[in-house]
From TrEMBL:
This is S1/P1 Nuclease. It comes from Flavobacterium degerlachei. One of its GO terms (biological process) is DNA catabolic process. It comes from the Bacteria. One of its GO terms (molecular function) is metal ion binding. Transmembrane segments: none annotated. InterPro entries: PLipase_C/P1_nuclease_dom_sf, S1/P1nuclease. Keywords: Disulfide bond, Endonuclease, Glycoprotein, Hydrolase, Metal-binding, Nuclease.
Length: 334
């Protein structure tokens, strides 16, 4: 019986590992962004979200699991937007419906639908708030946080998503997975509080444009280091000098190179994570306000809110110092 249970578990863990090593902010990034976003909310919305902070934190990685474990083909394009392939900014479709009229499914599948999916998720979250559907509020909010986090990773907004067009293949996972794993323990989540977005569509596109503006600097930082260092200073190599690949056939960067790259980025990874926190909290808050600021107190037992109130006060004190309590993926950063 143990063997029967063990093999599927190992297959699942392997698949999860592949997903987080190749294309996602990973557990380390996504969980922290969603959890910190709860702490950045104003009351009374924060009180309701805090009652379910563990769910919102852990649910943050589900879109990647759906993409890799369930192999849902419809999921993949929701995570990126290859801006260069859509023409001038002024010509971008403003909604998913407009995008589907202008481009065929093959084009959108290849180049992504991230900004329009965020808009659609916002509409659904607003409706869930308005109708006070607890499970839907929590589920949609947690998943929305994932896509907003992806929208803060520069290479999620570029056709050169893994440096494959500039001989920098492997840069994607190095930037958004390996660097957070190595350095997140030094990050301070002192972020701006949630704000109300008067225009959700504008806020979405401003976010995408701001993130995309970082692509040249990101690639230049890596390129500048590569031209000044030997191969074995950049990549892990074997005795013959050949670059060692990991079990997923990706290059392995040395920790020393990762450290130099992190320094050359001048705080970009931490800054983008912090922007994602504020944006996530702001989108949640905006959906709640646009729904008419419904009273969510009666969606939870009074005893639950009362029990959590002391813990919330302690966590607020920690958060004001830039710290988060109880992140399960802390072990992933060791």
């Amino acid at each position: 019986m143990k063997n029967i249970k063990f093999k599927p578990t190992m297959l699942l863990l392997t698949a999860v590992a592949i997903s987080f090593l190749t294309i996602s902010w990973g557990i380390v990034g996504h969980e922290r962004i969603n959890k910190a976003a709860v702490m950045a909310l104003p009351k009374p919305l924060q009180t309701f979200f805090y009652n379910h902070i563990d769910f919102i934190t852990q649910e943050s990685t589900v879109p990647d699991l759906r993409k890799y474990i369930l192999q849902d083909r419809a999921e993949n394009p929701r995570h990126y937007f290859d801006m260069e392939n859509f023409g001038s900014v002024d010509s971008f479709p403003k909604t998913m419906a407009e995008a589907k009229k202008k481009y065929d499914d093959k084009f959108l599948s290849k180049n992504g639908t991230l900004p329009w999916h965020i808009q659609d998720m916002m509409a659904k979250l607003t409706t869930a708030f308005k109708e006070k559907r607890k499970s839907e509020i929590l589920f949609i909010a947690a998943e929305l946080g994932h896509y907003i986090a992806d929208a803060h990773m520069p290479l999620h907004t570029s056709d050169n998503h893994d440096g494959q067009l500039t001989d920098q293949k492997g840069i994607h996972s190095l930037w958004e997975s390996r660097l957070p794993e190595l350095f997140v323990k030094n990050y301070k989540f002192t972020v701006a509080p949630a704000e109300y977005y008067e225009d959700v569509d504008k806020a979405t596109w401003d976010m995408i444009n701001d993130t995309h503006s970082l692509v040249p600097a990101l690639l230049a930082a890596d390129k500048g280091l590569r031209t000044s260092l030997a191969t074995n200073q950049i990549f892990v190599t074997d005795a013959s000098g050949a670059i060692v690949k990991n079990k997923y056939n990706g290059v392995r960067y040395t920790d020393e190179y990762a450290g130099q790259f992190h320094t050359a980025l001048n705080g970009m990874v931490e800054s983008q994570m912090k922007k994602a926190v504020t944006a996530t909290a702001s989108f949640w808050y905006t959906a709640w306000v646009n729904a008419g600021k419904p009273d969510l107190n009666n969606l939870d037992a009074v005893a639950l809110t009362k029990r959590n109130s002391k813990a919330l006060k302690k966590d607020i004190k920690l958060f004001k110092k830039g710290d988060l309590f109880g992140i399960e993926s802390d072990k992933d950063a060791e």
